[in-house]
Design goal:
Helix content is 40%, strand content 28%.
Length: 151
């Protein structure tokens, strides 16, 4: 049994504890039921519920849900366009999101699959220090995919 000031009152019968809590004008709340003997406290139950709800809301507000962002490229992308796309990749990874890099092949580009593989290996090399490859490059129809996750 613990009183409202946090002092240990020792082991009491449940009836005695309820009567003592009523005298003080507080409720008897079981804090840890799995302990032997179970630990109970004198608390204002409304205030206790409010505090626990407030802690839960704060925890929910601060957590970050990891999303998958997508960056689309073409196999013959120009250097400046590549740099712009890579800035976005670093930004997404900095926010803690996964990035799906998609290479779109059109027409005869499909016969030059090695160009796409070289580009994705270049991406891999550029992000090696801040992220890891979660799914290695693979073909899916007319596009090549790779998924990157923050380290």
């Amino acid at each position: 049994m613990i009183d409202e000031n946090g002092e240990n009152l020792g082991v009491l019968f449940t009836r005695e504890a309820i009567e003592q809590a009523a005298e003080v004008g507080l409720d008897l709340v079981e804090v840890s039921p799995n302990a032997d003997p179970p630990v109970a406290k004198f608390l204002d139950i409304g205030k206790f519920k409010y505090e626990t709800q407030k802690k839960a809301n704060l925890a929910r507000k601060t957590q970050h849900i990891q999303e998958i962002k997508e960056i689309k490229m073409r196999p013959n992308i120009d250097d400046h366009d590549y740099d712009t796309k890579m800035k976005k990749v670093f930004e997404f990874i900095g926010e803690g999101d996964k990035v799906k890099v998609t290479l779109r092949f059109r027409g005869r580009e499909l016969s030059h699959g090695q160009l796409g593989m070289n580009l994705l290996q270049r991406v891999q090399g550029d992000i090696a220090e801040v992220a890891k490859v979660e799914q290695h490059p693979r073909f899916e129809g007319r596009q090549m995919l790779m998924v990157i996750a923050p380290k």
